[in-house]
Amino acid sequence: FLHFLKTDQELSTATGIQNFQLFDSIVAAIKIVAPHFNKHTSVLNIRERVLMTFMKLKQNLSYSFLSILFPTVSVRYCSEIICNMLDILGEVLEPCIHFPLRDEILRNMPLCFADYPDTCII
Fold first, then answer.
1. Which of 13, 56, 64, 106 is surrounded by the most beta carbons within 10 Å?
2. Cα–Cα distance between 114 and 105 in angstroms, integer?
3. For residue 42, which of 15, 68, 72 has the smallest C-alpha distance?
4. Hey, what's the torsion of the CAs at 19, 22, 24, 28, to 10 degrees?
């Protein structure tokens, strides 16, 4: 299915990933964190697995519809691929999430949360 996406706009519409450079960076990071994915033991390569996963996240496509877009994969296997990729993406993307220090959180806390000093994330 990836060959249908020609422009950054099409990629962004389908997956929420803004451009192919970022998409390729995510794929490269997965190859480092999960080198066993480099082996072609699956009917989908890493790029296709990442694409499928982000399409599910962005569009909330059913597994049945994903299996139509990726015809070499059964409905059940779509679910397995996405669950597995979510674990790997969590590991890969965790360092990209910045949690501010407690003092910074308290300085920027909306007034309506003044009675909830233990709040860290809204």
1. 56
2. 12
3. 72
4. -170
Torsion of CA 45, 81, 52, 48, to 10 degrees: 0
Cα 33 to the center of its chain, rounded Å: 15
Between CA 114 and CA 118 the distance in angstroms is 10
Which residue ranges make up each domain of the chain?
2-113
Tokens encoding 57: 């996240």
Residue 69: phi and psi, rounded to 5, are -70, -30
Kindly give the confidence (pLDDT) of every residue in the chain, 122 residues in length, as a single tens digit, with 9 standing for 90 and above: 777 899 999 999 999 999 999 999 999 999 888 877 656 557 888 999 999 999 999 999 999 999 999 999 999 999 999 999 999 999 999 888 888 888 888 888 888 888 887 877 77
Give the total residue count for the chain: 122
Residue showing tokens 């809204």: 122
